[in-house]
């Protein structure tokens, strides 16, 4: 588990991750923002979805016992979830 955390942190740094202390809500200001789900930095059981470009991101919640994984961009079982550093969405850079 520690190895996975270290690997996630290293990948975030390699990808040019800019730390983000906000809730992580993206601006949804481009069509490509609708192609994936976005982490809610303040609530690991929730995530953001851009359904349409140039409209506000909509909050979504994982099913019971689920937590949002930034690595897989899906909800996973809480026992498999590990914290990873928060990164600013591209629309906020």
From TrEMBL:
InterPro entries named in the record: Chitin-bd_dom_sf
Keyword terms of this UniProt record: Signal
Signal peptide: 1-19
Superkingdom of origin organism: Eukaryota
PANTHER family membership: CHITIN-BINDING TYPE-2 DOMAIN-CONTAINING PROTEIN-RELATED
Name of the protein described by the UniProt record: Chitin-binding type-2 domain-containing protein
